[in-house]
Amino acid sequence: MSSLFAVKSMETLRAEAAETGEHSLKRVLGPVNLITLGIGAIIGTGIFVLTGQAAAQYAGPAIVLSMVLAGVASGLAGLCYAEFASSVPIAGSAYTYGYATLGEFFAWIIGWDLILEYALGAATVAVGWSGYVVSFLHDFGIQFPAAFSAAPGTVVTMADGSTVTALFNVPAVLIAAAVTALLIVGIKESANVNSAIVIVKVAVVLLVIVAGIAFVKMSNLHPFIPPNTGAFGDFGWSGIARGAGVIFFAYIGFDAVSTAAQEAKNPQRDMPIGILGSLVLCTVLYVLVSGVMVGLVPYTTLGVPAPMAVAIDAANKASQGTSWAWFVGTLPFLVKLGAIAGLSSVMVVMMLGQPRIFYSMAHDGLLPAWAKKIHPRFRTPHITTIVTGVAVALAAGFTPIHILGELVSVGTLLAFVIVSLGIIFLRKNRPDVHAPFRTPWVPFVPILSAVVALALMASLPGATWLRLIVWMAIGIAIYFGYGYRHSELRKRIEAGGN
What we know:
By secondary structure, the protein is mainly alpha-helical. 66% of the residues lie in helices and 1% in strands. It has one domain: Amino acid/polyamine transporter I. The longest helix has 36 residues, at 104-139. The model has no long low-confidence stretch (mean pLDDT 85).
């Protein structure tokens, strides 16, 4: 059983990262590609969808503080990810880092946990994408069938006030299929599409900030921290904490950059740039745009699938009769278009990350060999990309967005805890490992990162924890049923190797 906690040596990991040939991933990404991949994953459902819901249900105008708290937690974890990415430049992200520092069993736990982050993260985004597309079509007089626009059992309110109970989310399934096809074609093509979309959605966010700030009503910001209702998480300071835990989904994505390490031209230099650069840029944008949103309308009106559209509609009305009217009047259309494009790019990065986790786990023998097959022409993990696409489509078609969002948040925070503690183990057990980027103030920063992540996890609803426990129990059963018996590392240990 000692092999449960056996670590994979840095030398072995670097040898695997240096592999070339038709069965390896193609190195084509530079620092700009990596930064835009990070921005592409970060700016999405969190800011276009979940921000409004967190403000309406938990934090009120103090959602700005929730953003700062979640950004700090992400920044601390980002420093740890950056060191690992520069010292272990291989696909697999936190799974590989866990294997190098904490051992195989923890690596499996984090690999299984990352499915919550990437696959269910993409499903969450697909649901948000569906909401904006249906709204966008409605603006052009096209009424998408309400029964096929949301998860089963969801009550959809029509324009005339009547309600329809949804059966299946068709648009969410269609976008999952389209992104899957794009990712099979190639990493460079996917990165180029993502970069173009990132330009569009960052421009839209900047336009919202510039146009909206002129029409902020200070009365909407009072009280800045609504009084607690008597229950934990219902406004007050505990509401800020819970809001940060939920809105933490908005920051997920910078770690997805690390899954592309084996496709980066110079990963030891460029991975930290991609991870930290995208995180800093997005944090600044998030704080500004969330402040504008709660300043434009009462926070209680933002608990809808398209809260940014609600805020901009308010700015549009306030601008009537001013010289800004023509400009602000175009924003509702641009916001919806930017949200659709932006959410698409998030799905690209999330669904890019998940197959590469599977690829790394299969390479280690913890998953069947078919999960590491590379397409002979496109040099992408095509089989696991298809598997991921099917899983994302099913989850998006049948699961409400709030359940998906909370599961993704708790899964990501757990990954952050393990990666943060992994840095401490790495420094203690392998102080000789060369890392172009090193986390400052170790062990203070990793410990603080783990504590903050755990605190945010504790603020999430109990039902989310129960789903996490069930998910992990299933994963442990699969590990002992298949992974442990087929582990390549265990076989080498038993054969007298390392």
